[in-house]
Amino acid sequence: MAHYYFENTPHGKRKDGSKLDTGKHYDYISREADYANMKNRQEDLKLTSFGNLPDWADTPRDFWQKAEEYRNKPNGRAYREFKFALQEELSFEENIQCIEKFLKETGIKDNHAYSYAVHDKPAAFAKEHRNIHCHLMFNEKIIEKDRPLAADMYFKNYAQNKLGEPVKGYRSSREFSTTASTVKLRKLYADIVNDKFREKGLNISISEKSLKAQRQELLEQGKVEEAELLNRMPAPHLGDAYKNPAVMERIMTEIDETDAKADEAADGFMEQEKDEDLSIQELKIKLFANDVVIRQVARQLQQERARLKKEQQAEKARIEAEELQHEAMVITTGDVCEYLDTKITEFDKKAAEKLAAFKAAQKNVLDDKRLELLAKDKMFDGNYSKDMRQYSTINKELNRVKIVLPTLYGQKDKLQELAALSRKNNELTKKRNEIGKRIGSYKTELTNNTERYNAILSKLKKQNEEAIIKNKALYSRYKYDMLQTQKYKSVQKKLSKEQADTILFSEKIASQLGHKNKLNGTTFIKDLPFAVNNNNIYFFTEQKNNIVKAVKIGDDIVKGKVPVYYLKVENANIKSVSKSDEMACLYARKNRTVSMKNLHPIMQEAYKKRHQSVADKVAKIANNLVNDNMQQVKAKWQENEQTTDKTKLAEKKMYNEWSL
C-alpha cells in the first residue's frame, strides 16, 4: 500500500545526544566495513550511488571519513540526511527515477557531494508488503567547481581576503535547515511520487499532510469510510524497541488482540477497556497496534474501492462496446477512393521492384556469341577472352605506329622520335606474336578437344535457357502489377467524378431520424440542445445569433442524410421554421481516428474490430468494382499498350509471344 514517510535529520545523534561518527554512519547505510555482514537483520542493500566527490576522495567512504575528521567537534555538522519511503507499487527502476528527480530538483545533484543507499526488507508488521526506503547523505557545502579545494580546506568555514576573494572553505547552504524548507521538501517528494503514479495510470497517491488535513480532504470527496480511519492519534515512534524479540512478540500479540476486538465491536460485543493503569511503553504499543490495524483496514478499503471501480469501468466499457457494435456503418466513394489510392501505391511499388529485379537478372541472359566466348574462357581458365582483347588492343596500336613511322623517315630532327617509335613497334610486334602463339594454341586445343568444348557450351546454354525462363516470369509479374495498377486507376477515375460523401453501402441506419442517431457519425442527436414547435422536436446543430440550424426528429433518412431547417429563435422560443436545401450527414465523412492510449482494453478491442470490419467492407466493395470492370479494363490495356521502358523495348521482340 502506498505510504508516506520523509525525515530531515541534520547529522544523526546517539541516545546521549552526541553526534554520530560520519564515516561509521556511511558504513552503516552502505553496509560496508563493520556493517558488511550484520547478523539477525532481514534488511537487504539494493543499491548505492554517489556524486560530486572531490578529486582527493577515491570513494564516498574516503569523503565521509575526511568530513568527520575535519568537522568542528563536538557540535560540527558534517552531513544532513534525508530518509524517505519508496513505493512498492513502483518498480525498482521507477523508484530510482524518483530519487534522481528529487536530487535534481533540490539542487543536491549539481551543488553538493552526496551518496545514497536503497534498502529493501519485508515490512515488520505486514510480511506480504515491502519496506523499501532510501538513506540520502549529503554535505551542505556548496561546491565551486572552478575552485577545487584540498580536504583540509574543503570543510573549513568560508572566508574572504580584503579584496573580497575567497581564501578558504565553501559557503554552507541554508536551504534545508528551516521548518519551512522541510515542509517544502516533503511536498516536493510527495509530488514527484504522485506524478509517477499518474504516469503509470495508478489511482493512488501519497500525502505529506497531517492526518487531520487528509481526513478533511477525504470528507470533501465524499469518502467517509476512509476519512473516519484517519480520525485517530498518529502512531508513536517505537525507535529500535521493536527490534527486541520480546517487544516484537508483545507488539504482534497486541495487533492480533486489537484486530479481534475490532471484529467484536463490529458484532456489538466489545467492552470498553481502561488504559489508566498501563505504562507509557504499553500505551505506545497499544497506540501502535491500533494504528497498524487501522492501516490494514484502510488498505482493504482501498483495494475494495479499486476493485469496484475496475468492475464499473469494465461494465461501462462493455456497454459502450456493444453500442459501438450496433453503430451504423456507411461506406462512401471517398472511403473507396482512399483504399484505391493505397492499392495503386502498393502495386506501383511492387511493379518497380519487379522491374528492378528483371533488369538485374537480364544481365545473366547471353546471346550465342557471348555464350561461345564464355565457353572458351571456361576451357582456358579465363585467358581466352583476355588474350583476344589484348591481341586486338595491341594490333590497333601497331596499326597506328605503322601509319606514323613512314612520315618520320629522312627527317633529321625526328631521329630520336623515329628511334623511340621503332623500339615501340618492335616491342608491340614481339608481344603480339607471343599472344598470337597462345591464341593459336587455343584454336589447336579447340580443334583437337571439340568434345570438351561442346560439353561446356551445352551446359552454359542450358543455364542460359533457365535464366531466360526466369526473366520471362519476372517480366510477366511486372506486367501483371502494372495491369493491376491500371485497373485500380480506371475505377478510381470513374469514382472521382462522384461526390466524396456519396454512399455506396450502408448498414444499420434507421429509416427515420431518432435520438440515437449520430450527427456526422460523432455526436448523439440526444446530446444536442433542442426545442419543440407544433409538436415537432428540433435538435440544434449550429447557432449564429438568432438563426439556428436544426434537424427534426422523425424525418426520413435518405442516403444517410436528413434535411436541415433554419429556425428563428427569440427568448428560447421558435418564431419561424423554414426548410433549407442543406442536408446533414448522420455518418462520419472519414473514418475518425480514436486515441487508444486511455481507453479500457475492452473498448480498444471493440474499436480494433470495428475498424477491421469497416476496412474489410471497403476492400470488398472496391475489389468488386474493380473485378466487374476487369474484362473491359484488360482489353483496353492490351489494345492501347505503349512500351516506353528501354528494357521493354530492347526485349519486345524476344517476349512478343507472351500473353497476360
List keywords for this structure.
51% helix, 660 residues, 5-stranded antiparallel beta sheet, single chain, disordered C terminus, alpha+beta, 15% strand
Describe the structure.
The structure is a single chain. This protein has 660 residues and is of the alpha+beta class. 51% of the residues lie in helices and 15% in strands. The protein has 18 helices and 16 strands. The strands form five sheets. The protein has a five-stranded antiparallel sheet with strand order 1-3-5-4-2, with helices on both faces. A five-stranded antiparallel sheet has the order 12-13-14-15-16, with no helix packed on it. Helix 12 packs across helix 13 (383-404). The longest helix has 46 residues, at 280-325. It is flat, with a radius of gyration of 46 Å. Residues 262-272 and 630-660 have low confidence and may be disordered.
